[in-house]
């Protein structure tokens, strides 16, 4: 049995495996510019975040109906459960779908139906985080939020993703203010490709409770001190960082330095269908590449529940499971 963990940084569209992409393309009569799943997998070689996002958005074309979104989320939850994930906080990008004419209700209700069944079917509790595309306008984010209002009972938080450089967090101050007013949690991608100043801005201007990625905080010792002091969770995604060339190799990954600096780091998969692994694959990869011992892995798993938006009672129960876990030799 894998180490129990929470996954806090997962884009549901990034869990679209080539086999499901082809099945949905056939179901919906959507042409794909690839002859086979092997040919599609060959396209998974990225120079940077943008080259990945181009393919990620192109493949969303196969997602059209409520059932498609349901099937996508159910497939992710099944795989996650097999990797020890007991709780998943799942990003979705409504603008990637509404821009293609798919109503936001189709997206949220389809995902929501899979999430409703997740605890019973897969033993995984869930939260849904609506993410704004930062390379689109502040007005588009506001319109997206307004159109989501009838479905907000299914949404626990808001996030910010897509191309980071040139799109500082402060651009989204107003929509984050409205989200806070609606009682939603707030997180944002910052410091993946963007500068450490974006991390500070996300904290101070958007009021985020967690920072997604946050790697580049290491360039600013005063910021590291602050993140450590305030125990701001950072949702680190090791395999993603290598595939998107934020770090050269896994052996160069700063995860251990981040732990040693007293940061509340968690390990996550980001876009597992594209980056070569789900949650436990990321744990195994850093254990191997960085020589992490069992107690460090246990700390990372405990951090994932501590940093989650679970209620305190469930959080305590999951932390007890982590503490009682016996590692196989
Ligand atoms: O890793 C990512 N970074 C930014 N935006 C994203 N959207 C999906 N994955 C990512
Ligand atoms: Zn991400």
UniProtKB/TrEMBL annotation:
Residues involved in Zn(2+) binding: 9, 11, 189, 270
NCBIfam families cross-referenced by the UniProt entry: aden_deam, PRK09358.1-6
Reactions catalysed, as given in the entry: adenine + H2O + H(+) = hypoxanthine + NH4(+)
Stated role: Catalyzes the hydrolytic deamination of adenine to hypoxanthine. Plays an important role in the purine salvage pathway and in nitrogen catabolism.
Family, similarity comment: Belongs to the metallo-dependent hydrolases superfamily. Adenosine and AMP deaminases family. Adenine deaminase type 2 subfamily.
Pfam families, alphabetized: A_deaminase
Record's keyword annotation contains Lipid biosynthesis: no
Signal peptide: none
GO molecular function: adenine deaminase activity; zinc ion binding
Chain segments annotated as transmembrane: none
Name by which UniProt lists this protein: Adenine deaminase
InterPro entries: A_deaminase_dom (IPR001365), ADE (IPR028892), Ado/ade_deaminase (IPR006330), Metal_Hydrolase (IPR032466)
Record PANTHER family: ADENINE DEAMINASE
EC number: 3.5.4.2
Gene3D superfamilies recorded: Metal-dependent hydrolases (3.20.20.140)
Binding-site residues for substrate, renumbered to this chain: 271
Keywords, sorted A to Z: Hydrolase, Metal-binding, Nucleotide metabolism, Zinc
Cofactor annotation: Zn(2+)
Active-site feature positions: 192 (proton donor)
Domain Adenosine deaminase: 4-324
Gene Ontology cellular component annotations, sorted alphabetically: cytosol
């Amino acid at each position: 049995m894998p180490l129990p963990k929470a996954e806090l940084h997962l884009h549901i569209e990034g869990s679209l495996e080539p086999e499901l992409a082809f099945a949905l393309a056939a179901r919906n009569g959507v042409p794909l510019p690839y002859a086979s799943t092997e040919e599609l997998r060959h396209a998974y070689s990225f120079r940077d975040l943008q080259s990945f996002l181009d393919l990620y958005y192109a493949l969303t074309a196969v997602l059209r109906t409520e059932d498609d979104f349901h099937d996508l989320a159910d497939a992710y939850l099944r795989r996650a459960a097999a990797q020890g994930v007991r709780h998943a906080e799942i990003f979705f990008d409504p603008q990637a779908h509404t821009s293609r004419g798919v109503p936001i209700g189709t997206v949220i209700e389809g995902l929501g139906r899979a999430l409703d069944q997740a605890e019973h079917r897969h033993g995984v509790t869930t939260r849904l985080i609506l993410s704004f595309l930062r390379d689109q306008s502040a007005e588009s984010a506001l319109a997206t939020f307004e159109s989501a209002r009838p479905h907000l009972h299914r949404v626990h938080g808001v996030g910010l993703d897509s191309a980071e450089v040139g799109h500082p967090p402060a651009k989204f101050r107003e929509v984050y203010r409205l989200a806070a007013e609606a009682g939603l949690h707030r997180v944002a991608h910052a410091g993946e490709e963007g500068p450490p100043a974006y991390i500070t801005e996300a904290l101070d201007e958007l009021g985020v409770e967690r920072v997604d990625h946050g790697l580049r905080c290491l360039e600013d010792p005063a910021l590291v001190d602050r993140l450590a002091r305030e125990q701001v969770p950072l949702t680190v995604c090791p395999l993603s960082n290598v595939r998107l060339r934020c770090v050269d190799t896994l052996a160069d990954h700063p995860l251990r330095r981040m732990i040693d600096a007293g940061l509340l780091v968690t390990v996550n998969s980001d876009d597992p269908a594209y980056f070569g692994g789900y949650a436990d694959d990321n744990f195994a990869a850093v254990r191997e590449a960085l020589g992490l011992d069992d107690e460090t892995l246990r700390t990372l798993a405990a951090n994932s529940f501590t940093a989650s938006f679970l209620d305190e009672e469930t959080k305590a129960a999951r932390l007890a499971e982590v503490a009682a876990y016996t590692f196989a030799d």
